């Protein structure tokens, strides 16, 4: 619908006929002007992004395997076409550009950039050995060529794409870990008994019509965040007016969440291959940050000749060709060839490197990033540069440990208005504040060493999935992946307790603040402990206002101890009792105003909070 109302002339990437027509027309287009290609590239990147978010954000039961394969193939076709067009534009520049010759060296140099790419080209027109190194002053990228290349008709291209179209597609389309249904007989029996007991109680206490309504909702179950959203909406419509009916909403939500418990797929797949070669980068542990650098040495194509107002250009069948280095001949097989020196300026404001990044090269044959072939690495942190040598020309990426910001040191979920809240996650390197309003979220601030960074990302409303992708690309990863538990010391919790806690927290988040507790580490796998406080104002929560609550997925109670107590105890707070849900537990101590806010909370807001909690997994990764 959004695509239809935009009416911008772009094809629908999900319709195969439309996207194939779009690609065919551009392949046939002979316009190789670099500005035209860059402008068209923006449209292609937008189409790729739409398909990626479709794969990330669509529940598994709403997309077929055939559609998934189609979207993935379309993404790869668009990526390949875009790179081919940039190759054609590079060749066109080398043939026709007569305005970029350096007055000192006589060689051609050009830097063209926009928000998506930076293209640096140097052409060795004079073949003077004195000019074998060069720095593109606009962007501070540079190179130092061996003498054998400095006397040949070659061109050097450093093509920095701020996106990554090189890494495997599964890495680009990876978001929250996949969920699967818990298949444990013990838990199933336990749940069945609890549900049956709850149903018997309900029959005695309520009228038959009410019981039939609950039975229908119970049979539907919760299969995904979207169906959770739907169920909550229906319940909210029916039970908006009275407090008794609001209690029913929580009870039904509670029973539904018992029917199917999502569990992170933490077990290693049978087909998964462990990384044994130390030169291969494990992409489950490291992720490319800051895009990709295509560093190439090219055959210098015949340049255009001006004859009587005519421009004559020799057309080569092969198109843009790379220059072989080291030379591929029998005579030079045993000869040592000098390495190529490369200097790269790290992106200033777009991304953050908390540690010196790992420099890796792409291996097209093995379809993997490798660290061999790169040597003598020097990090100039203050200048924001990295200098290294390569034995040949490679495609380069700077990779960062995906789990630098895990486990979290602290977290807090705090309401700030009607259907608004603030999620604050504090890590070893940064403090990340995410604001939620209705069905969207926004990066509020990222503080690193008391400095506000990534200002170009703050203040923009987006979906939770979009936010996770944007922050990961910027180097801020507070979203555990499918294999993160292998690389982070986690506070493991039983799925029944953890995921039902997230549901209950999201349900009451409009009026209650939640925070990290040190006792969560002491409570064991089967139970979670968290600080809770009724919070109806926009300011921060005072230390004395927090209370400790324990929840095991089936029972909640208020603890007698405080955060400052000397030892952990599960003892129940005086004058309180056990309840089956956090909502009913909090209701014992809540004001009418707080309960009213919970009752009126929008179902889209509840679902957005739930998605964020599920993505960050604050109860396990802190």
Automatic annotation (TrEMBL):
GO terms for cellular component: axoneme. Keywords: Coiled coil. InterPro entries: IC97/Casc1_N (IPR031826), IC97/Dnai7-like (IPR023247). GO terms for molecular function: beta-tubulin binding; microtubule binding. Residues 1-130 form the IC97/Casc1 N-terminal domain. The keyword Coiled coil applies. Residues 188-259 form a coiled coil. It holds the Pfam family Casc1_N. Belongs to the DNAI7 family. This is Dynein axonemal intermediate chain 7. The gene is Casc1.
């Amino acid at each position: 619908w959004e695509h239809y109302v935009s009416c911008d002339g772009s094809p629908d990437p999900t319709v195969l006929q439309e996207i194939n027509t779009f690609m065919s027309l551009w392949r046939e287009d002979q316009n190789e002007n670099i500005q035209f290609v860059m402008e068209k590239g923006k449209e292609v990147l937008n189409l790729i992004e739409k398909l990626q978010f479709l794969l990330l954000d669509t529940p598994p039961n709403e997309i077929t395997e055939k559609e998934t394969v189609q979207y993935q193939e379309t993404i790869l076709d668009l990526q390949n076409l875009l790179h081919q067009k940039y190759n054609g534009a590079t060749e066109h520049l080398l043939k026709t550009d007569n305005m970029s010759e350096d007055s000192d060296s006589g060689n051609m140099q050009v830097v063209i950039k926009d928000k998506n790419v930076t293209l640096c080209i140097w052409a060795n027109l004079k073949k003077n050995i004195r000019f074998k190194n060069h720095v593109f002053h606009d962007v501070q990228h540079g190179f130092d060529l061996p003498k054998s290349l400095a006397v040949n008709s070659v061109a050097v291209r450093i093509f920095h794409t701020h996106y990554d179209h090189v890494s495997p597609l599964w890495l680009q389309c990876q978001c929250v870990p996949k969920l699967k249904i818990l298949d444990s007989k013990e838990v199933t029996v336990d749940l069945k008994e609890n549900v049956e007991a709850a149903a018997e109680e309900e029959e005695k206490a309520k009228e038959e019509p009410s019981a039939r309504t609950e039975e229908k909702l119970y049979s539907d179950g919760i299969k995904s965040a979207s169906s959770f959203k739907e169920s909550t909406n229906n319940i909210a419509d029916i039970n908006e007016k009275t407090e008794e009916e609001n209690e029913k909403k929580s009870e039904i939500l509670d029973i539904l969440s018992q029917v199917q418990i999502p569990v992170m797929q933490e077990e290693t797949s049978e087909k998964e291959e462990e990384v044994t070669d130390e030169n291969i980068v494990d992409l489950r542990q490291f992720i490319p940050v800051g895009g990709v650098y295509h560093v190439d040495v090219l055959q210098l194509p015949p340049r255009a000749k001006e004859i009587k107002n005519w421009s004559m250009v020799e057309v080569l069948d092969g198109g843009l060709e790379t220059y072989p280095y080291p030379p591929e001949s029998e005579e030079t097989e045993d000869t040592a060839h000098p390495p190529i020196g490369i200097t790269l300026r790290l992106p200033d404001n777009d991304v953050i490197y908390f540690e010196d990044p790992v420099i890796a090269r792409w291996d097209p044959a093995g379809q993997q990033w490798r660290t061999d072939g790169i040597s003598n690495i020097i990090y100039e942190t203050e200048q924001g540069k990295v200098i290294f040598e390569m034995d040949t020309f490679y495609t380069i990426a700077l990779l960062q440990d995906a789990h630098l910001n895990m486990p979290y040191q602290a977290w807090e979920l705090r309401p700030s208005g009607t259907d608004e809240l603030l999620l604050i996650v504090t890590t070893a390197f940064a403090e990340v504040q995410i604001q939620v309003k209705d069905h969207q979220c926004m990066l509020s601030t990222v503080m690193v060493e008391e400095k506000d960074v990534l200002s170009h990302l703050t203040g923009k409303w987006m979906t939770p999935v979009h936010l996770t992708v944007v922050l990961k690309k910027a180097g801020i990863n507070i979203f555990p992946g499918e294999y993160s538990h292998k690389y982070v010391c986690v506070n493991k919790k039983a799925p029944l307790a953890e995921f039902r806690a997230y549901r209950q927290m999201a349900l009451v988040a409009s009026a209650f603040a939640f925070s990290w507790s040190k006792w969560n580490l002491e409570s064991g796998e089967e139970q979670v402990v968290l600080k809770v406080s009724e919070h109806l104002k926009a300011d921060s929560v005072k230390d004395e206002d927090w209370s400790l609550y324990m929840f095991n997925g089936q029972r909640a109670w208020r603890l007698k101890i405080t955060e400052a107590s000397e030892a952990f105890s599960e003892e129940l707070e005086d004058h309180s009792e056990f309840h089956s849900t956090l909502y009913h537990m909090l209701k014992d101590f809540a004001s009418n105003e707080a309960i009213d806010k919970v009752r009126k909370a929008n179902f889209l807001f509840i679902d957005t909070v739930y998605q964020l909690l599920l993505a960050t997994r604050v109860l396990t990764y802190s």
